[in-house]
Automatic annotation (TrEMBL):
GO terms for biological process: mast cell degranulation; prostaglandin biosynthetic process. Coiled coil: none annotated. One of its GO terms (cellular component) is extracellular space. This is Prostaglandin-H2 D-isomerase. Residues 35-177 form the Lipocalin/cytosolic fatty-acid binding domain. It is found in: Cytoplasm, Perinuclear region; Golgi apparatus; Nucleus membrane; Rough endoplasmic reticulum. Gene3D superfamilies: 2.40.128.20. It holds the Pfam family Lipocalin. It comes from Sapayoa aenigma. Belongs to the calycin superfamily. Lipocalin family. One of its GO terms (molecular function) is prostaglandin-D synthase activity. The lineage of its organism: Eukaryota, Metazoa, Chordata, Craniata, Vertebrata. Its EC number is 5.3.99.2.
Length: 185
């Protein structure tokens, strides 16, 4: 019985690792071209916080810059109630270009971040595998240089999110904020 349970757990872990390795990374990734202002257009996640906060989420502004040691500083500003909140994160580059790691000081979770696809001037599709004490989760973000993106890009985001095992109610095209609510600009 115990051997069977260990076998099942081993296969589940192997499947999770395989799923993580199947997430592609942008070929010939050019980090300097990813820097600058982006808008979060789409967000998909199977995490509990997303399910709880989904109805409150709105588009946010993200500024990506390169640090002196080649990592990424990611500053996101998003509306929360009648205020704008800013969150800074440091994404540490990994050996593979376009792949980064991040550890949340608040939650203790580790994030394997991959720039899946980008043309640098219009959109970026980013996938994150999150490991947390409460279990793993997946997050997919769609960034745009403008507040609107073509239906084809939105569909690509939705399709990719589904390929990562996310359901339609875990996929959200973020509503724009009105000028009164602020966009963090």
């Amino acid at each position: 019985m115990q051997a069977t349970l260990l076998s099942v757990l081993g296969l589940a872990l192997l499947g999770a690792l395989h799923a993580q390795d199947s997430i592609p990374v942008q070929a010939d990734f050019q980090q300097d071209k990813l820097t600058g202002r982006w808008y979060s257009i789409g967000l998909a996640s199977n995490s509990n916080w997303f399910k709880e906060k989904r109805h409150l989420m709105k588009m946010c502004t993200t500024i990506i810059s390169t640090t002196s040691d080649g990592n990424l500083e990611v500053t996101s500003t998003y509306p929360k109630g009648d205020q704008c909140v800013t969150r800074n994160s440091l994404y540490t580059k990994m050996e593979q270009p376009g792949r980064f790691s991040y550890t949340s000081p608040r939650w203790g979770s580790t994030h394997d971040i991959r720039v899946v696809e980008t043309n640098y001037e219009e959109y970026a599709l980013v996938a994150t595998q999150i490991s947390k004490s409460t279990g793993p989760s997946t997050m997919v973000l769609l960034y745009s240089r403008t507040k609107e993106l073509s239906p084809e890009r939105l569909e690509k985001f939705t399709q990719f999110s589904r390929e990562q095992g996310l359901t339609d109610d875990e996929i959200l095209i973020l509503p724009q904020t009105g000028e009164a609510g602020g966009t963090g600009e």
